[in-house]
Each structure stands twice: as C-alpha cells, then as structure tokens.
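job 3f2a | input accepted
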Amino acid sequence: MDNKTYAVVDLETTGHSPTKGDRIIQLAIVFIKNGEVGDKYVRFVNPGQEIPAFIRQLTTISDEDVKHAPYFEDIAAEVAALLEGTVFIAHNTDFDLSFLQSEFARCGIDKWIGKKIDTVELSKIMFPSSLSYRLQDIAEELGIPLASAHRADDDAEATAFLFLACMKKLHALPEETVNLLHRRSFTLKSDLSTLFYEALKRARKKSLGRDWSFFRGIPYKNLSTEQQEVAGELHYPEETDGKIKLFEKAYPHFEQRAAQFAFMDAAWQAFANRDEVIAEVPTGIGKTVSYLLPAAIHAIDTGKPVVISTYTNHLVDKIMDEELDKIRTMLGVPLTATVVKGREQYVSLGKFEELLRIADESYDETFTIMQILVWLTETTTGDLEELNVSGGGQLFVDRIRKRSNALARDERQADYHGKLLDRCNHSNLIITNHSMLLADLNRERMIFSSLAGVVIDEAHQFVQTSSRLTETVFSYTNWKYVMGQIGSDAEGQLLYKINTLIHQYGVTRYREQSQLASALLKFITLFDQAVGQLTSFGPESRNRQQGNRMVFPLSEMSGAKPLFAKTVEALSDYIAKAEAYTVEVSAQLEQLTAHEQAYLAEWAYWIRELTIKAGEWVEIFLDQQNDNFTVWIEKDKRSIPGSLTVIKSTLDGSALIRQLIDRFKEERTGIVWTSGTLAIEGNERFIAKQLGIADTVPLLKFDAPATFYEGAEIFIVDNMPDIQQVSQNDYIEAVADAVIQTVLATGGRLFVLFTSQDMLRRTYDLITESEQLEEYALFAQGVSSGSRMKLLRSFRQFDNSVLFGTNSFWEGVDVPGEALTAVIVVRLPFSSPEEPVFKAKAAKLTAEGANPFNEYSLPEAVMRLRQGFGRLIRASDDKGFFIILDRRIETKSYGQCFLASLPDVPVKKVSLEHMVNELENCYNG
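job 3f2a | predicted structure (925 res):
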C-alpha cells in the first residue's frame, strides 16, 4: 500500500441535519498507515440538547454519557488538525464528511480539503455479490469484528478493516481488470481513481495468474465443465436402524421421526418403481433432506440424474448451499449437483463486451460495469442473480442477459449457461426452478430428459408458475423505455450516432431518414391515443377499486380494437424502415471501428426488442379468441399513465403441466410431488386437481411430531368490528389499534399479514401518524424500499421490528426462533371478487354448473391461511401466537373449514383487552 495516511471517521449524531440543529454526540477517527490500523481518537461530544429516544436506542449512548463531555466547539480545531493532510474515509462520506464540514463552518474552522474515499462505494465494487452494504452486514459477512454497531469507535474501526479488506481484494485482481476499473473510476463520487491507479502500478509488476481466461480483453475466472459423476451401487436403508445410522452422521443430535422415514420410503418407492406420488409434508418433518437422500441414492445407482424443482431461485440456492453437504456426509460420497436456471439468468459476455465499446455511460451504468468486471473474476456460474446492483444498474444488467444460443466461436468458450448445461450430463442431481422445468417443453434441446426421477417441491406453486409462463404483459413504462432508446435523434443518443455513422460512410439517405422519422411519429401518435383510451376508461363504482388502484377487464372496454390494430400496423411499418435504415452501412462492417460496430449492434438489439413488443401487443389487444384466457387493465390513480399495465393470463395452467408429466411418464420416470400444504379438510385433492394429477395417484399426508406445535397458540379477537358491517375506514382504525396494542405487549417481532396493498398502506400510515410505535422498526411491503428478501433481512436485524406484508409474505419466508413471536392476520385471505383472474375463473366454474365459492374461493383462502400459520412455527422449540382479527372465522359457517385446516393447537376466542393482558403476562411476567 502507498505511504499516505488514511483517517477513517465515524460520527454519531442527534439526527441527520446540522442546519436544523442536530449535533455530534460521538466522534471517532482511526488512522491507517502503511496498510495497518494505528492510532485512534475517540470522543463523546455534548450536543447541548437531549438525545432523541430513537438515537438513544440505536446507539446506546445516553444523556448521562455526554453530560460532562466537551462541546464540539471545544475540540473542533483539534479534530481539524488531526485530519489535515490525510485521506478521509467513511462508510457513507455524504453523511459523515458533510456533517463534519457543516460543524467546522459553525465553529469558524476552515473547511477540510483533501481526497475522500467512501467505503460504501468501494465495497460495492470490490464485493459485488454481497447481500447488503450496511456496515454491520458486510462486516459480519467478511468476518470483521463489530462489537456495537452505531457506536462511532466500533464503527470506525470496522470501517478501517473493511477498507483494508477492499484493498486486499483489489490487489489480487488481474492487471487487465484493474486497468478497466481505473479507466471508469474518474466519474465516481469519491476519489477511488487514486486507489485504482496505485493498484494498477502494483499489478504491472506481478506475473500473470493462471486463474483467469480472457474474452476480448476481459478477464474472467476459468470455467470448467469437468465434473465426474458418482456412479456405483448404494443401498437404500429399508430398515429403521440403517436410516438412523445415516442421519446420525450429519445430525449428531438426531431425533427419529416416524413421519420423516415414512415419507423417505414413499419417495424411494416412487423412484424405484417409476411411479408417481403426491405427499403433503408439513414443517417439522425434515422434508427436503427426506427426498434428497433417496433421490441421491437412486441417481447414483442408475447413473442418471434426478431433477429437483422448487418454486424460486432463492429456494434453489438454499438447497444447493445448505442441504447437499448433509447428504454427502450421510452417504460418504462426493455427490455431484448442478444448479440450472433460465438462459436469461446468465451473463452474455459478448453483449457485455459490446456495451463496453460504447463510451456514453451514466453513473449507474459505469458503476455496474465496474461491479461486473470484479464479479467476472470470481463467479463460477455467471448467474446474474449473484450481483447486488442498484435499480439503475439493473437496467444495464438486463441488457447483458443471454438471449440466444447462436453464439460466435469465442463466445462459446465463455458461455456460462452452455457450460452448466454440459455439466448436467455428468451430475447426479440437477437443481432447478418450476419455470425452468416447465419451459423445457418449448426448447429445441431438452435439458430434462432421460432422468432417474423428478421431485417437484412446493408443488402448490406449480399451477401459478404454469399460468405465469403463458402470461403476456404490457407495461407503459417499459414500452416508453424501449421506444426512448432509438426514438431520439438528440446529440449523444443512439439515433444521432447512427445518422452520423451513415453520413460518415458516404451513404446519404435523407429521404429514408425523413421516412423513418415520419413512421415513428405516426406510431407514437397512435400509441399515445391508445394509451389515452386505456387510461381514461374505467368503471367508477367503488367496488372496482382498492383505494387508488383500479383493476378491470379489458373486455369491458369496447370500440378500441381498430385503434389497437392501427397502432401495431404503424409499429410494424416503423420496424421495417428501421431495419432497412442501416442495411447499407452494415454491409461495410469490416471498415467500421469497434465502437461503430457496437452502435450498429445496439440499434439491431433495440429493433429486436420492439419486434417482440409488437408481438406482445397483438397477443394482448387483438388475439382474444381463446376463452381460457382473461385480459385486464391495472392502473394507479396517483400515477397515470406511468402505472398503466395490461396483463393477459391463462385461467387453467394444468394443460401445460399435464403435457410435461406425460412426457416424464413416457420415459418411465418416477415423480414425487410434495409441499407443506396440499390438502384441506373436505377437499383433499384441491391442489391435485389443479395440477391435473389423476385420482388414481395416491395423496399421502404426513403429520408433524405431536410436540412440534406445543409452543403455538391461536387467538381469535372476538370484539373486532364485523368487516362486512362497517366501513373500511372504521375497520382499518380498529386494525391499527389492535396492531399497536399487540406490538406494545410483545415488544415487536411481528408479521402483520394483509390481502390488500391499499389496506396495508393505510394501516401503516395510520400507525405511523399515531407516533405510538416511534421506538419500533416498522417495515412495510410496497412502502419501505427494497425487495421481499431485503425487507426480511431488515426485519431480522432488529429486536423490536414489525413487518407489514401482503400476498408474498404468506408463504416462502423463514424466520425461525425468537425472531418472530406473532403473526397477525388482518382478514381472511380470500381473493377479491373483482380481481380479474378470480372473476373469470368463477364465471367459468358457474358456467360448468359448479359453485365457485366452494370449489375455488374457499379452498384457495384456506390454503393461504395454512401457509400463513406456517411462518410462525419453523422448529419444535419455536413459540408464538397466531392472531386472527377477522371475526368471520367464528361467525360464518365456513369459518370451521379454516380452523380445521390448522394444526391442533389451543384456540382462544377473547377480547382484544384480554389477549393483550395475556401477551403482557407472557412477555413481561
């Protein structure tokens, strides 16, 4: 490392705004010299005001701690002297440095001048796959000690070690990567270019490592398809003693569960007899390991792979990262497994290199490119989901996805997706997701054939996946984004570059240029008219709206088809002219520079995107003959036309599923369907019917151990207002009050589950405005920023957190132990009768002479409530309360169906006051 002195600074303050009177309460400076952490300067600071309650809780710094400390005015000159001549480092310099500069100015001290380094910016580049860049998160990931987060002394020291970890990673990169990073570093927000320059000088003195290959000058980690599958003969342990011996190898404190062994036997029989079985296996049995073990043994015995398919890529990765090592330990063999996701999940190095040749980049694009350059030196999969990029960066990532199997020769050597497919041929297990499995029906080169068996986990989600695969979506913002890439001829835009290119190479096409502009204008005019009709139309009746969200079937909108047809005709005409526009200059490809070739490739890319859009337009707005589909419009009154979305979805996805299963059966492949929720009282084959599984296929139900749910209780709050007898405002007020009282009684760690985003938002706003939960960490899906998994991580990090979630939080999230103490169900999870898919399915059932409530609405809601309960108890020693605020569960005849579907745990019908007293006694007694 160079001989500069780095000053790593962290501040704790009473708030974020020094101009509004916020002050420093603790300051720490840690110095780094010659690559080592050295002297430290730590001071409490008297802010001259009371420390807010939230800050006291966050930092554990009390008014007593700062009572006799100096004011900042007393130490300002000393701090300025310590920082003079150093490089300023902080984990978010925008806060720490700007706050410090403001305080210097207030105290009459000259502004600090020098170079600054933001470790948030640096760590995002150096560790592009980290889940979070909050200091405590990335410190934990890298094994950096951080005794007390939000204490300046500990935070500053952790930041210093984080900086050193980043430098170590930077110095290990190949010279070519560092060179590419350095070229782009001058537009960053902090002075990282000096770090990259020093690293580049150092890299030039190193010998070239053998860990990297090169694609058109871009280093990437060597790819290997070498994977020797394990073959031979293993014996499935038929006897209980044999099973116990295997499990004890991976689980030193293993406790035998009869249901677990029974499910294992059922899965083994399905594989061995090339049969089909459907099994409900609740939490507490150890479902995943129970099908992986027989699957692994059968794959090794037959020399063919078993496919494991689950709902999301997150669950796919969890199996790969957490479960397979246990199976290897049990069997004592190096079991081989490959994760395969959809083609577009993987990077196209050809497209990435092409975009690097285009000099015009936004900050987000530059930053994302730098992250990808580092990531390529370490990824072995090329799976773009490994990257943690900004929202703007995601647009760039979407442009470098692999979209075609037609590759140049040098691309084939660096084709991550292709290499993984080759590995499948030598794997015992192939781990994938439902979408990938179903999409095999449309592939020229089938991936999942000649198998030893198939396991479909989270089977109840297979129907929704099938429906989504046949779904077509029109998004106004997405269309405008694509149109904007090629529509503007302003200087610096793509069309301007293409026009310059055409004139430069002596192909003067003023007439064609005018025709192209006219065709675009005609299309945009018609497009805007069509969007105008879509946004202005909409039933005004309140029952069609959920707050600001409006949803209604496209079929209710009459007379617009001619306009839709003219719009796509105009688009097709524009596409034809845009394709022809570059034909002559493309013929001179060999004379073009690399940059110029990249502009032509970009033009062709966006024309292809528009061509896809044209097909989607026809599919949604003009092809409405099939009665197995429904099309609906969604928009938000607060954001029109930006929120406009039109969706076409199938009403029955079972046809696609049956087609896939029939193919497996022709190959005599054993099939195991499983999930924690497959059957409900009185309609045991509800999911099986949706999946198109024949009645002759046995449905096996396994029970969790008798003691598994001992720590659970169900409360039905019987003095809540009747949801069907009061206004929504009154009900929301009652819900907000119930949530506040429950949170105060338990100390937080609650899920509050809604069925409506509008009701969630209004309840959350009401609770926030009341200020009664000021000292709690509140996270709300669709309100707080971040994905579902990010919200879940944030929820886990606070002892006093509350998470407000809608549909996707009813299942598929795992919060074991004391991190979750209660789940509040705001209303029974029936689908809204005005939701277009539900409405169309109900109409179809009615036409067939069936009762849509009994056959579809009720069982779907019961399944969802079961899944909601499943969030609460994830292990036998978990304790928690399942709180139902919707009185219909006791006042309606169908309420018993919901209760009968839940595990056999105590159910108490009590007033809110009585429940709160019980909770207080439990948590404060």
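job 3f2a | The domain at 712-924 is CATH 3.40.50.300 (Rossmann fold).
job 3f2a | closed
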